[in-house]
Amino acid sequence: MPGIDYHELRQQITMCEVLDLLGFQPTSRRGPQLRGPCPISGCRSTSDRSFSVHLARQIYQCFACRSHGNALDLWAASRGLDIYQAAMDLCHVTKRGIPSRAPLRNR
After folding, report:
1. What is the pTM (predicted TM-score) of this model?
2. How many whole angstroms separate alpha carbon 9 and alpha carbon 23?
3. Domain 6-93, what fold?
4. What is the pLDDT of residues 36-68, one digit of tens each?
C-alpha cells in the first residue's frame, strides 16, 4: 500500500466539500457553525439538529451517534470505511491525486 500524507490530504479537502458530496442540508447556521441531520449511515438521530459542524475549525460532531473529527473522518464514517480506504475513495471521488508521504530513509 502506498503511504498517504494524511496531513496534506486534510489540508486539501475541506469540510464544505465533503458536506456537499454527502448532500448535507443544514437546518440552521450561526456564523461558521452549521446544524442539521446527521449524514452518517446508521445514525439513528431523529433530531434535525444533532449534527454540528464548525467550518472555520474544519470539525464536526454528532451528539446522537457520538461520531466526531475532521472532513476525512466524516467521509470514513459516512461510508463505513477505514481511514486509508476513505482517503483513497475521497481522492478518487474528487479527482485528486493521492498525496504520498516521503519514504523514510534508512540510516
Report:
1. 0.88
2. 21
3. DNA Primase; Chain A (3.90.580)
4. 999 998 888 777 889 999 999 999 999 999 999
